[in-house]
Write a structure and sequence with these properties.
single chain; 7-stranded mixed beta sheet; 29 helices; 22% helix
Length: 1414
């Protein structure tokens, strides 16, 4: 399917030949040019034709605005009916759609016969029903197959599309027609059943593949009688060569004569044996196409090789060498040489004395140049290219030849002569070249004709030289297999080493040779029989082969799995080229489908062989044929079994492990239900868990967790009937249900609904695990309560039933006469029941304790929280809780003390204590205000008054004291807190590398403590033991807030934990929060503390952080929350006023110390700009910038961080900040610029920090800073970047500045704008020509420059400086260096960056061995 260039050199039997610059890489399954794109899975034919040779009918729009054949109104012609039949059965992997265009008088019987023939089913095993309801009223009644009615009488309408569905007959799938059978009724063919010819395609085809095919025909042999080869992925080059070898009688017959000795070699790695098997299958298989995987496996290739792109000529050489290695010491040892090897002479003749030195080389193919090197004219024909191949060249001047006879350097003639042509002549048309101007590979699509018969006698041993002394010389005897220097593309012959190998012979030797040549000339007429075509470009394409059969002289197209007949006209279309003249650029507009390799056979009746007949096969081939037939029959039987096997998902709740297991049950449709239970029993490995008679299969809907029905009394029913036939997919599953020996299976009837009943206990606030019961949709709620009462033994009179219809939709069923269907019950349902005598029954449902408990149950999620390894503030926490509750004993019991360094802790802990007391005071104040100010919430408060959070475990009598403390904090010590928070901006908040940030806690602490509040466990609503800890903080501002994902990309600057008045924004509804210690998995790190938190996901991030304060040990404003995703990537959650609704069960959260953002603050990533470094963008640190801050203030805050974290000791005037867009430097920020006013800033903003060499030159926004770089063409190098500051956008000023810094005269300055991302890297081989030098503009801010902002890259040069002339070696070396440099910097490489993999065949089947043919 694909092709690629060989790496460096081809070889002629060991002699190196310069290879074509490449052969094209493959596209995915592209058909040849002019071929229709046919669907691989279905064949949709939407046009019609009156007959196989008639012109297409007139097309008119139908009522559906689609073109349909116009009904012929002439009385002489019968109307035709267009039938479109869709196969809706599961008999085949893919359902096809076929079209029949039939006369209106066609009987219905004939319609069924035609459909059976077309689709490939046995007639009488399927039904046809109407696919649309336009024609008849009943669309489900099958059309009567035995009726004598015509299709017109049966309701078919001429001139319109009549849609039919092909369905199962009596529940049985249609029977596929055996591959041997088929219709031979010519009349059916005359009436054009199947693919309809396109306009203009009657008579001859414009395509190289069959016009159309259906999926059923893929499984059957092509009408040509030949078998195709399946393309593994990109193996079209292999398929083309294999088909050519198979169609070569001499090669195939010789391969059949070779006998494989299994005792000596593994058949899997034997290349000749696998080729033999492939050829036998190509000759005998009934399939349309066969696989080549066994052949490629014998090459030592794995599946990845199928995706490698190679050249067909390279494969030919490598495979022939591999065969020769395998055939050593056998009768076929010299087969390749006998068939394909020719000889030529590489000579040099002195023009003064006539002395000739020469050597003889062998070749397997002749590479013919399409277009000579440096020429803009292509050769017109193969004959012309052959003449050029043997055209000698004169060695004169510095290239003179040292003559052994003259003992001096003389003018000489060097060339090639053909001495012998092989029996099978291979010509390679070198269509792939390298354009040194663009440094790209190109394909030459120029027209080159080739004859059907080629006379090679004119090319053998041509001697037209008339030198003063003509003496013939020959080889001394042995053939020398050195380099054969005949590449006419470059005319680059090697040096004279080894060409003086000959000696002078007597004149009679010349006479003998001339006589011998004369006899050979008389029998050198070759006939063409294989054309390997490449369609595409040098970057991608596709190979296929056009091959003439020697059996019937008919040409065929072998295009992977498609084989079709073609004509001589189709062969001529592979000449290439266009109708215009053959200019240099003509190939760019020519057809990309053209011949690449030609194979001719010598016309010699004494040697021309015919293919062996079956009775002529050697005995081992007869056995192999029989073996392959048996294997194919076995595959066919296996396919039949697969076609009759039901495959359905199987589930089972393991009786002891209590886990739901899943598997796939495969059972033949004729197996009974009892047998299927045995298969499922073993499949689920229940032998030791439960007896077989305690298992049964029931119909199950896994999506809704619904048991649809059981199969009582149907143990002997075939599975095909129970499941509704064999189908590719089923709309239901099976459950292997188990019971204890003392239990009895419940009967599940169709129409029942499944209900999972959860019993709610209001006293313990628990929700019990579900009990499953079955009900009917027509039952009333009152009857349903009685049913539940029997199952749960709870009184129905006081029972409240709540249906959870969907997420968070809790509906109380309080109308006893309503049916379950009316209440919204479906297949599988969940209800909660409560049947106590409490007064809660008389409260409005939405205000009841039951509703709140269920609401909490529905919204509670489980999170795993990783706390910092060192949690400071143990004394702070003890002080807080001693003040608030007067009892620290319980807290100390749950605390784990970790010793730490002793330092100055007093001031820090005082600040922490004050901060937390302030938070506690605010919280209590809000709670008190809420209780007093909203009497409507009294009931709600009373339900939860005994359940409080650690932050609220404070007696109400202390609230006044706390408010007083709050006022003291606000009045007496605002500066202390403010200054401490201000210092946070001086530290690194790198979230990705450190779990403990350097922040206000940078001073030492005497101890670090993790404290877990240990409360009495109670059953949680979702079944987990928990204790309800709620907070009475309500934030009305947060109600109805849109929920979004918490990612680091969101705008964090607008959401802070505190508003301007200092009040907490963590107020929320009565949100559930419970935490308990959690033992994390191994590998999470020593000292890592985890909490398992059950929390209402409607809680805001702000409230969630405040609940975590006691466990982290610092106020919520001094730690950050990071969400951990599946790939272990962490993103900071920063929107404090948004809920946890985007979180789900078992999500992980990491807590890191570090000051959280306040209102108007933004986290900023600072990168260093290094304009002259290979990597100009280097991350330094994270910083915090605030709205209203000046650039100079932000620089002042950066200074200590740069010094401590990055080792950069700078002064404030030694660096600047500038805009960063991806990797491009932009606007220079001036010191007086203000964030949010002059500079737009956002969350996770990025800026460049640039260290200055001198004084800052940018003083005004009217100035423009550009980065200039000088190009020196005479030295082929680029200078470093220099910044140029312009006062205006004038081009003249730019040139003046460039002249000033470079010394180039102003009139000689030429400049160009760089392209792409900074630093606008470009190959020095391209910069001189590729850039738009010296644009004709007067200002920089217009097209094509558009330089309107700082940071643009300008290249400049001296126009009088000449470009260095490079030799080919220098250019190649420079190209390699530039490629390496540009690839390292991540910038584009101008020539193909694809790494080519050499084509290798491993003789022992092991790629790790060094036995390769390269």
């Amino acid at each position: 399917m694909a092709a690629i260039f060989p790496n460096d050199w081809r070889w002629w039997r060991g002699r190196a030949l310069p290879s074509p610059a490449g052969a094209a890489a493959a596209e995915e399954e592209d058909e040849p040019r002019a071929s229709p794109r046919l669907p691989l899975l279905t064949t949709t034919l939407s046009s019609a034709c009156c007959g196989p040779s008639a012109a297409p009918p007139a097309m008119v729009p139908s009522e559906e605005n689609q073109l349909v054949p116009k009904e012929v109104e002439s009385a002489a012609e019968e109307p035709r009916v267009l039938c479109i039949i869709q196969d809706t059965t599961n008999s085949k992997t893919v359902n096809e759609r076929v079209t029949l265009n039939l006369p209106a008088s066609t009987p219905l019987k004939r319609l069924f016969e035609d459909v059976a023939s077309k689709v490939g089913y046995v007639n009488g095993t399927f039904d046809l029903v109407w696919g649309n309801g336009d024609n008849v009223t009943d669309t489900q009644t099958p059309i009567d197959q035995n009726s004598d009615k015509t299709i017109l009488d049966a309701g078919f309408e001429p001139g319109k599309k009549n849609f039919l569905h092909l369905t199962d007959k009596d529940g049985e799938q249609p029977h596929i027609m055996p591959e041997e059978s088929g219709t031979t009724d010519d009349s059916a063919q005359d009436r054009l059943i199947g693919p309809l010819p396109r306009e203009g395609s009657v008579g001859c085809t414009n395509d190289y593949v069959s016009q159309s095919y259906s999926y059923s025909s893929v499984l059957s042999k092509s009408e040509t009688g030949y078998v195709g080869l399946v393309n593994q992925a990109m193996t079209c080059y292999l398929n083309s060569l294999l088909q050519t070898l198979f169609m070569t009688p001499e090669f195939r017959n010789a391969l059949y004569k070779w006998e494989f000795e299994e005792s000596e070699e593994d058949p899997v790695t034997s290349i000749p044996y696998q080729l033999q098997r492939l050829f036998v299958l190509l000759q005998t298989s009934k399939k349309r196409a066969i696989e080549t995987t066994d052949v490629t496996r014998s090459f030592g290739w794995d599946s990845s090789e199928a995706w490698q792109q190679h050249d067909v000529q390279e494969l030919c050489r490598v495979m022939f060498d591999a065969l020769e290695q395998k055939w050593k010491q056998t009768e076929q040892a010299d087969l390749i040489n006998q068939l394909y090897q020719g000889k030529l002479k590489d000579y040099v003749r002195c023009l003064e004395c006539g002395y000739e030195g020469w050597r003889i080389d062998t070749y397997l193919d002749i590479p013919l140049v399409i277009r000579p090197y440096g020429s803009n004219q292509a050769f017109a024909s193969v004959e012309e290219a052959l003449h050029a191949f043997i055209q000698p060249e004169i060695l004169d001047g510095p290239n003179q030849y040292f003559c052994e006879r003259c003992k001096k350097k003389c003018d000489a003639r060097k060339g090639l002569r053909f001495l012998h042509f092989p029996y099978l002549l291979t010509l390679q048309l070198k269509r792939f070249d390298f354009d040194y101007t663009t440094m790209h590979r190109i394909k030459l699509n120029d027209r080159m004709t080739f004859p059907e018969e080629l006379d090679m006698s004119v090319f053998i041993d041509v001697e037209d030289e008339k030198s003063p002394q003509t003496e013939s010389c020959t080889d001394s005897g042995a053939e020398n297999e050195g380099s054969c220097h005949s590449d006419q593309m470059s005319n680059d012959f090697s040096n004279d080493d080894g060409v003086d190998e000959g000696i002078c012979l007597e004149s009679n030797s010349a006479a003998e040779r001339i006589s011998k040549a004369g006899s050979e000339k008389s029998s050198l007429l070759y006939e063409l029989f294989s054309v390997m075509v490449h369609s595409g470009s040098a970057a991608g394409g596709h190979y296929y082969a056009c091959i003439k059969s020697f059996s019937d002289d008919q040409w065929y197209s072998f295009n992977d799995q498609h084989v079709s007949k073609i004509t001589q006209e189709d062969i001529k279309k592979t000449y290439g080229g266009s109708s215009g003249s053959r200019g240099y650029y003509s190939s760019a507009f020519a057809s990309s489908t053209n011949a690449y390799m030609l194979i001719y056979r010598l016309k010699d009746p004494t040697r021309n062989a015919k293919f062996l007949e079956a009775h002529e096969y050697p005995e081992h081939i007869k056995q192999l044929v029989q073996k392959e037939r048996e294997l194919e029959e076995q595959e066919k039987r296996q396919r039949e079994i697969e076609r009759n096997t039901c495959k359905i998902k199987l589930f089972c709740m393991h009786p002891t492990k209590q886990i739901m297991m899943e598997n796939k049950l495969e059972v033949h449709k004729d197996r009974t239900l009892k047998e299927a239970v045995e298969i499922a029993y073993k499949l689920m490995d229940l032998e030791e868990a439960v007896p077989l008679d305690c298992c049964r299969l029931v119909k199950y809907d896994e999506f809704h967790d619904y048991l649809e029905r059981s199969y009582e009394g149907e143990e002997d029913t075939p599975m095909g009937l129970l499941l509704g036939g064999v189908k590719s997919t089923y709309m239901f599953d099976l459950l292997l249900e188990t019971r204890r020996p003392d239990q009895v299976f419940q009967c599940y009837k169709p129409g029942e609904v499944m209900v999972k009943v959860h019993v709610v206990d209001l006293k313990t606030e628990s929700v019990a695990p579900p009990i499953s019961i079955r009900a009917y949709l027509n039952q009333t709620v009152s009857e349903f309560k009685q049913l539940i009462s029997k199952a749960t033994h709870l009184p129905a009179e006081t029972m409240r039933v709540v249906l959870e219809r969907c997420y968070n939709d809790l509906r109380l069923l309080n109308v006893s006469s309503k049916t379950l269907k009316a209440e919204g019950f479906f297949r599988s349902n969940k209800v909660f029941i409560e049947s106590s005598e409490s007064l809660d029954r008389h409260v409005a449902y939405t205000d009841s304790h039951l509703w709140k408990l269920l609401d909490r149950h529905a919204n509670t999620i489980r999170l795993y929280v990783s706390l910092p390894e060192q949690s400071p503030g143990s004394q702070f926490r003890r002080a807080v809780y001693q003040k608030s509750s007067g009892d620290s004993g319980n807290l100390d019991e749950g605390c784990e003390r970790v010793k730490g360094p002793v330092g100055n802790m007093k001031s820090v802990e005082a600040i922490l204590e004050e901060s937390t007391e302030k938070l506690k005071s605010l919280s209590l104040q809000q709670q008190q205000e809420g209780d007093n100010g909203d009497s409507s919430k009294s009931t709600e408060a009373s339900d939860f008054e005994n359940i409080e959070s650690p932050l609220n475990e404070i007696d109400s009598s202390t609230s006044a004291e706390n408010r007083e403390l709050e006022n003291q904090i606000q009045i007496s010590d605002p500066e202390n807190l403010q200054s401490e928070e201000r210092s946070d901006s001086d530290v690194n908040n790198d979230r990705s590398t450190s779990s403990v940030d350097s922040d206000i806690l940078s001073s030492s602490h005497s101890s670090d403590t993790l404290c877990n509040v240990d409360n009495a466990p109670l059953p949680l609503a979702n079944g987990l033991d928990s204790h309800s800890i709620t907070s009475s903080r309500r934030s009305k501002a947060n109600q109805g807030k849109k929920e979004t994902w918490d990612t680091a990309e969101e705008d964090s600057g607008t959401d802070s934990e505190y508003d301007e008045s200092g009040k907490s924004r963590g107020e929320a509804q009565y949100m559930y929060f419970k935490s308990e210690p959690y033992a994390a998995d191994e590998g999470s790190g020593e000292g890592q503390k985890w909490l398992m938190v059950h929390v209402d996901k409607r809680i805001t991030l702000s409230a969630f952080k405040q609940h975590l304060e006691p466990f982290v040990g610092v106020p919520s404003s001094h730690f950050k929350v990071f969400r951990v995703y599946a790939s272990n990537q962490e993103f900071e959650s920063v929107r404090l006023n948004e809920t946890l609704s985007s979180f789900s069960d078992d999500n992980k959260i990491t807590i890191r110390l570090g000051r959280a953002l306040k209102k108007g603050e933004y986290r900023v990533k600072v990168y260093q700009l290094l304009v002259n470094e290979p990597e100009p963008c280097k991350f330094l640190l994270d910083a915090v910038f605030a709205k209203g801050m000046t650039v100079r203030q932000s620089k002042e805050e950066l200074l200590p961080q740069l010094r401590e974290q990055c080792g950069l000791d700078l002064t404030i005037d030694r660096f600047r900040l500038r805009k960063k867009t991806w990797k491009n430097p932009g606007t220079v920020f001036l010191d007086y610029h203000i964030y949010e006013e002059d500079i737009n800033i956002s969350s996770n903003w990025e800026v460049f920090l640039e260290i200055l060499d001198g004084v800052e030159k940018m003083k005004s926004m009217s100035q423009l800073a550009v980065l200039s770089r000088r190009w020196r063409p005479s030295e082929m190098k680029l200078d470093s970047f220099q910044e140029v500051v312009l006062e205006s956008s004038s081009v003249e000023e730019l040139k003046e500045k460039l002249s000033e810094i470079s010394g180039i005269p102003l009139e000689n300055i030429e400049f160009a704008k760089g392209r792409g991302t900074f630093p606008c890297d470009i190959s020095i081989l391209e910069i001189h020509q590729d850039l738009d030098w010296n644009p004709k503009v007067s200002t920089l801010n217009v097209w094509p420059l558009y330089i309107c902002d700082d940071g643009a890259v300008i290249f400049y040069r001296d126009k009088t400086e000449e470009l260095m002339e490079l030799t080919d070696e220098q250019r190649n070396e420079l190209m390699k260096k530039e490629s390496s440099r540009l690839q390292k910097t991540g910038h584009r490489v101008t020539y193909s960056p694809r790494k080519e993999k050499a084509l290798k065949i491993y003789l022992d089947g092991a790629p790790n061995k060094d036995l390769t043919q390269d």
